[in-house]
Amino acid sequence: MSPKTIGLIAHTGKTGAADLVRAVIQEFSSQSVSVKVEADTARLAGEQSRFSVGDLARETELLVVLGGDGTILSVVGKLDHDIRPIFGINIGSLGFLTCVASTSYREAVASIISGKIEFSDRALLDVQLDPQGPETHQSLRCLNDAVFSRGEISRLIRLTVRVNGEALTEFNADGLILATPTGSTAYSLSAGGPILAPESGALVITPICPHTLSNRSIIIDDSAIVEVEATEREYPVFLTVDGRSPVHVEPGTVVTVRKATQTLPLAVMPGVSFFSVVRQKLRWRGSNV
User: Fold this and answer.
1) Which domain range does residue 273 map to?
2) For 126, which of 51, 121, 219, 260 could close a Cys bridge (C-beta 3.0–4.6 Å)?
3) pTM score > 0.70 for this model?
4) Catalytic positions, please?
């Protein structure tokens, strides 16, 4: 893939983002590649633009995102059904989803222009809430995870979970995470869940601090349909997808989670594998004994 039109989006609150935006624009422009810049990103760099993230998804071939993993998740949440490949340049911290550090932006641009970048097709989740009917229905999409959690009161919540219509269990816990392989290295990992390779064809259900000690993460086929029902009426339950604003889940509401029909092509640099990223980001160096 050698794109002729690039969409550029940056986390405007990151230190050094303005200089990096200007440098990346200059680098692409010097190679006669058209760059369309998202409106807030353009203002950061002293430019003018009318483009939203959705506009860029419709009008460009590749989205270059400057920021961290959270920035990429935010962009994915604004794409709707106009999915475009994403190339991430890291000006964040850990950066499992980004390709290169900001100091290597010239190498990144050269790889994009030469068509040497590769893509990993990442599963997305469709999350459906239907408390009463069409007027209250909500449809959400995420790349990492759907997280059910308690509110400000430090009490356990009860969540009944069914997989393909069959009862799994009622979790009595601080919360519950349904994660894609991409999201398995995020909150689910912190809660004790396993790491899934992107092509594993699986989803993972991970309870957060379960009251029943035998409740552990369970890996399911990514064709499964998961239903989660909030059964505790006294304490509130909230749903957060990819770290966005929480949605209150009323008691008795069934939240349905399934793999989306679309996938996200996430760029990787040539010769960089998922396992090499895991070794680098998690600092796996073997035994210290």
Assistant:
1) 5-117+269-281
2) 260
3) yes
4) 69
CA 173 to chain CA centroid, Å, is 24
pLDDT interval class at 138 (50, 70, 90): confident
CA pair distance 181, 186, nearest whole angstrom:
10
Residues 273 and 240 in one domain: no
253 and 129 fall within a common domain: yes
The structure tokens listed for 143 are: 């790349």
Per-residue pLDDT band for 94 (boundaries 50, 70, 90) equals low
**The predicted structure's pLDDT at residue 137:** 65
Q: What is the mean pLDDT of the chain?
A: 92
Number of structural domains, the chain?
2
Please check whether residue 286 lies inside any domain of the structure.
Answer: no
Q: In the chain, which ranges are E strands?
A: 5-10, 34-37, 62-67, 86-90, 100-101, 118-129, 138-142, 145-150, 157-163, 166-173, 175-179, 202-208, 218-221, 226-230, 237-241, 247-249, 254-268
Q: Is residue 287 part of a domain?
A: no
